[in-house]
Amino acid sequence: MEKKDSILEKPIAELGASSVFCEGCKKMGYETLASILRERPEDLRAKQHFSYFWLVELIEFLKEKELLDLLQSMQGNSKA
């Protein structure tokens, strides 16, 4: 498995995610997983192009890479 930091800072387009996920990230202004994970949950959901289908793909990708725990910990905010 790739090191966490290299995956988090790699351009989303290079991660092997679906074109729909990559396009959603682009529309919301996210270039890396790290940029997504820095968002507070309420800010993420408030993005114009946010969808729960996009969120499910993010969760599945993070789970596959054993990084799901970062979804909460990097946000540093458990108040959703």
Describe it for me?
The protein has 80 residues and is mainly alpha-helical. It has a single domain (4-73), classed as DNA polymerase, domain 1. It contains six helices and no strands. The longest helix has 13 residues, at 52-64. The radius of gyration is 12 Å and the shape is globular. The N and C termini lie far apart (31 Å).
CATH class: Mainly Alpha
Number of strands: 0
Find the structural class using helix and strand composition: mainly alpha
Shape estimate: globular
Low-pLDDT runs: none
Q: From the alpha-carbon coordinates, what is the Rg to the nearest angstrom?
A: 12 Å
CATH architecture identity: Orthogonal Bundle
Q: End-to-end distance, in Å?
A: 31 Å
At CATH level 3, the topology is DNA polymerase, domain 1
* Total domain units: 1
Helical proportion? Answer: 55-70%
Give me the secondary-structure topology:
Blueprint: H1 4-9, H2 19-28, H3 33-37, H4 41-46, H5 52-64, H6 70-73
Give a brief description.
With 80 residues, the chain is an all-alpha fold. 55% of the residues lie in helices and 0% in strands.
Distinctive features:
globular, 55% helix, mainly alpha, 6 helices, DNA polymerase, domain 1, 80 residues
